[in-house]
Write a structure and sequence with these properties.
This protein is α/β, with parallel strands linked by helices. It contains eleven helices and eight strands. The two termini are 13 Å apart. The structure holds 1,3-dihydroxyacetonephosphate (13P).
């Protein structure tokens, strides 16, 4: 049985003070309402708020993730942060290859493979994102695009290292648009991704790797999405900034 995982991606929202208030509110709800066997919870604030957020969730069920990492161990890379820096700030997870980074910062799947390696070397769990654009979906290229992103992004990742990998399928056309993939559309792609993992790593790993869905997940659609056999939780943007909505989504994974 795969344990479900729900991760909140705050993107570039909330300054330090606001981040502390938000994580404190989420922590309060989780403390009062979390049940044993609920989904694993990860919150990904800005890098600026990582360390203080990690301190504020100590001893709770909430884990902290970053939204990006540099592929190098250290060096003259102004404005960047390494996996060991993230780890020392208290992060246990990192989002890699989010479509916004692919789109606005020209991150390629090859670059993501190096980031995945660097993060795993520090024992961080990566949430590796894949997903097609609207144009690619409409021209029926989505399976090819996802296959390419997955094969290139996991290049050099061994079977042992796959225990540190979570895949997130986020169709670009569903992010922040209010348009969700139908649960059938999402399930179809998740099953396809699991099949690709099986062909590369074998059945056991394919059965144990978690594949999250992301893109306009809200309290009112989460249950149906999470009810699909190959959907193991979600990567939540907008709704993760609203503590009550975020926890309703976590409950939908019960
Ligand atoms: P929304 O939930 O706001 O659509 O964002 C999804 C996302 O990009 C999470 O990484």
């Amino acid at each position: 049985m795969r344990k479900k995982l729900v991760a909140g991606n705050w993107k570039m929202h909330k300054n330090l003070t606001e981040s502390q208030a938000l994580i404190t509110e989420i922590r309060g709800i989780v403390r009062d309402e979390f049940r044993q066997n609920d989904a694993e919870i990860v919150v990904c604030p800005s890098a600026l708020a990582l360390a203080s957020s990690a301190r504020l969730v100590e001893g709770s069920e909430i884990q902290i993730g970053a939204q990006n990492v540099n592929e190098n161990k250290e060096g003259a890379y102004t404005g960047e942060w390494s996996a060991s820096m993230l780890k020392s700030a208290g992060a246990t997870h990192v989002i890699i290859g989010h479509s916004e980074r692919r789109q606005y910062y020209n991150e390629t799947s090859e670059a993501c493979a190096l980031k995945n390696k660097a993060a795993i070397a520090e024992e961080l769990t990566v949430l590796y994102c894949v997903g097609e654009s609207l144009e690619e979906r409409e021209s029926n290229q989505h399976f090819d695009v996802i296959k390419d992103q997955l094969e290139k992004g996991l290049e050099g990742i061994s079977s042992e290292e796959m225990s540190h990998v979570v895949i997130a399928y986020e169709p670009v056309w569903a992010i922040g648009t209010g348009k969700t993939a139908s649960s059938e559309q999402a399930q179809e792609v998740h099953a396809f991704i699991r099949g690709l993992i099986e062909s590369k790593y074998g059945l056991n790993i394919a059965e144990s790797v978690r594949i999250l869905y992301g893109g306009s997940v809200k309290p009112d659609n989460a249950k149906e999405i999470f009810g699909q056999p190959d959907i193991d939780g979600g990567l939540i943007g907008g709704a993760s900034l609203k503590p009550r909505d975020f926890f309703e989504i976590i409950k939908a994974a019960r």
